[in-house]
Design a protein that fits this description.
- The protein has about 140 residues and is mainly α.
- The chain has one domain: Hypothetical protein af1432 (Orthogonal Bundle), CATH 1.10.3210.10.
- Helices cover about 75% and strands about 0% of the residues.
- It has nine helices and no strands.
- The chain has helices at about 1-5, 10-20, 25, 30-40, 40-50, 55-70, 75-90, 95-115, 120-135.
- The chain is globular and about 45 Å long.
């Protein structure tokens, strides 16, 4: 898990949110299910890491990026770990998919930078440096 191994996060709540970050988007599990099992804090972080799939893609992405910028540091660090993981994994994808992953990474990094919490700064720098190396 990137958030623990590369980012050194040991808070079990943050690690739980990182593991569950795609749960709302990719399963039938909803916020209430997460709250019942993991508490309000973890459920709210996972919700912040989830896109509203009912919206058109452009609108959904804009709302998601705005939410990431407003999010607490725990959410920002989880998202940065997700971006890092996606960038590392994308080398196995076809070139057009790699391009999409890199573009999304740039967009998310830009959105996070708007109101980046101090606790997430080092991780933002790590991901930004990785993206620069990949694009070089």
């Amino acid at each position: 898990m990137v958030v623990r191994h590369f980012f050194g996060v040991s808070d079990s709540r943050v690690l739980t949110a990182a593991v569950l970050h795609d749960t709302i988007e990719d399963t039938t599990t909803d916020y209430d299910d997460l709250r019942d099992h993991f508490g309000d804090e973890v459920a709210s972080w996972v919700a912040a890491l989830s896109k509203d799939m009912r919206r058109p893609e452009d609108e959904r992405e804009q709302e998601y990026m705005a939410a990431l910028a407003r999010a607490p540091w725990q959410v920002q660090v989880c998202k940065l770990a997700d971006i890092f993981d996606n960038l590392v994994d994308c080398r196995h994808l076809p070139p057009e998919k790699q391009s999409t992953v890199r573009k999304r990474a740039r967009d998310y990094l830009h959105a996070l930078q708007i109101n980046l919490k101090p606790e997430a700064r080092q991780h933002w720098d790590t991901v930004s440096d990785l993206l620069k190396r990949i694009e070089a």
